[in-house]
Amino acid sequence: MILSPTQLGVQLWEVAHASTGLPWWAAIPVATVGFRTVLMPLSLRAYAASSYLALLHRAFGLSREVGDAVAVAEAQERRQRVEVAASASVSEASAVASTSSDSSIGGSSGSSGGSNNDSTTVVDGARALGRMELVRHVVAHLRKESKLPSFAWYVANAAVQVPIAVSLTLALRRMCDSLWPGLTSEGVLFFTDLTAPPVYLQTLSTPYGTAGAILPLALMLLYSSAVDRSRGGSSPGINMALKLCAIPLYITALQQPHAVLLYWLSHAATQLGIYQVAALAEPSHGSSTAATAQTNQGGGSVDDLLLVLSDSYDKAGNKAAARACLQALSVRQPGLASVHERLKQLDK
């Protein structure tokens, strides 16, 4: 029991309370800030790595644009091949009409077969892109361009911080359940008893009346603000999903002792502080992100991405996918001589 995570959390809280000499309502936030400060280097690296979530969302959007560009190029090339095949069939039929109708039919069928083979080649080139393979190549390009740290930092931070937060929360719950000395009297303002929750679920009674909802509401506001400031929350879909989690968070907070609510509030406040420190360390992040988003809405970024993807697929040995990207780029920008040269090199 001495080495259990919950018991270790109890010992940490008691050491923090005894060493600071503060009442419990002040010792809990001070200890929380101390814990988060020790782990701040890991938190900052995880904050930078969390951009991978927004980057992945943007990669799916760009991959759809690339797929649409390739589809347009395929349709145009297929249409051109059909027109060439049709004109060749008409020319051949008129040339041999004076000799034999059978030979005319044979020539027409032969040219038609050639057209089908060419069309199949174009379709195979598009399929060679591969949906998930395309996303992987786009993610690799965006990550290299933005110089993001490995996503392993985000996972490592969660592996460290989540068990600590859970252990400290369970420790406070155990201390409140056992009416730990000082917790019942060293509160502040309206919540003098830190062991009492805003709502007793068994009896649906509210020991502090409507004032008991103040800390849960403040927790929700801090949580929503943290979601907006996080890099993962910059994606609309992720932002909405995270904010929907505020509803069960509020319901859970109403049933927690005020000591736990103080810890959660301090934890959320320090998280906002970490985001602010990270933003000050990267002053150009906001402007660069806005510029990148604005560039992605234009056609130039997709054209550049098609060129980069052609090189990436070519290095991976997927000649058909590389040709499909170059063909799409040649349709979007017909005057690029370098694209036609690369297409000739791929066809060799």
From TrEMBL:
<dbReference type="GO" id="GO:0009535">
    <property type="term" value="C:chloroplast thylakoid membrane"/>
</dbReference>
<dbReference type="InterPro" id="IPR001708">
    <property type="entry name" value="YidC/ALB3/OXA1/COX18"/>
</dbReference>
<keyword id="KW-0812">Transmembrane</keyword>
<keyword id="KW-0472">Membrane</keyword>
<keyword id="KW-1133">Transmembrane helix</keyword>
<dbReference type="GO" id="GO:0032977">
    <property type="term" value="F:membrane insertase activity"/>
</dbReference>
<protein>
    <submittedName>
        <fullName>Uncharacterized protein</fullName>
    </submittedName>
</protein>
<dbReference type="GO" id="GO:0010027">
    <property type="term" value="P:thylakoid membrane organization"/>
</dbReference>
<comment type="similarity">
    <text>Belongs to the OXA1/ALB3/YidC (TC 2.A.9.2) family.</text>
</comment>
<feature type="region of interest" description="Disordered">
    <location>
        <begin position="99"/>
        <end position="122"/>
    </location>
</feature>
<dbReference type="GO" id="GO:0072598">
    <property type="term" value="P:protein localization to chloroplast"/>
</dbReference>
<dbReference type="GO" id="GO:0051205">
    <property type="term" value="P:protein insertion into membrane"/>
</dbReference>
